[in-house]
Write the structure tokens for this entry.
Amino acid sequence: MARCPFDACDGSGLIVDEATRTVYDCRCRPQVIARVKARSLSAVIPARYRDIGFDRYPVTEIDSAIVTATRRFCDRIEDNLTQGRGLWFMGPVGTGKTTLAMLVTQAALTAGRSAARYSLPGLLSQIRKTFDTGDHNDLLERLTAVDLLHIDDIGAEQTTPWVLEELYSIVNARYEERKSIVITTNILDRETLCEQITERTVSRLTEMCDELPLMGEDHRLDVGLPDRQDAEPVARPGFLR
Ligand SMILES: Nc1ncnc2c1ncn2[C@@H]1O[C@H](COP(=O)(O)OP(=O)(O)OP(=O)(O)O)[C@@H](O)[C@H]1O
Ligand SMILES: [Mg+2]
Ligand SMILES: [Zn+2]
């Protein structure tokens, strides 16, 4: 059981008054409920990102202004989640967007808040499945209840009216409930993003999230030497850079 963020209960979200033999809700109870609901959502931190930290490679190599902004957000994660503030990482392939977004998700979990993380294509296929099982509204409700929703790779999906409507429903539900979203996208140009995921979705995301642009080239191509921290980047054989 996670600690009570207010140090008021044993983490269960309930306070027992021994004198009057009554049980009442702790201030943290909504968080406890959101956490239980989130358990059936996507597994949160995938293996590749499990050991990341602000003081470790590769985060130490990422644009320091953007890392600092992310760190500041994480330092005030409780407030940010309570106010429904989010972050929007944008930039070319392999520049560290998902890595930084994972740090935010990790900070939320460490603070005892619930978080779920999906790639947008993965989330959509999850939603498609609910049409067979009939629990579409249930999934949408859980996606709205979770304290932090991290959606990776927005704009990477082939869009159809259905996809756009589903994405809009999720973003709008969280917008209305003042719930935080962290997103990553390869699309830097607002106009293009509007064409890709509709203006009304982009408009809400813009209001909910601080935009953090990452520049540079694809660091996935930096492989080749065993100790890559100290190594000069080496192009992978066979690729033209
Ligand atoms: N600035 C950087 N310096 C060195 N390595 C980096 C840097 N940014 C990312 N990496 C490494 O590059 C790989 C890709 O990082 P990440 O998945 O965060 O990129 P991304 O921006 O989300 O890419 P995509 O747009 O393809 O999803 C990881 O192995 C990561 O450790
Ligand atoms: Mg990514
Ligand atoms: Zn409590």
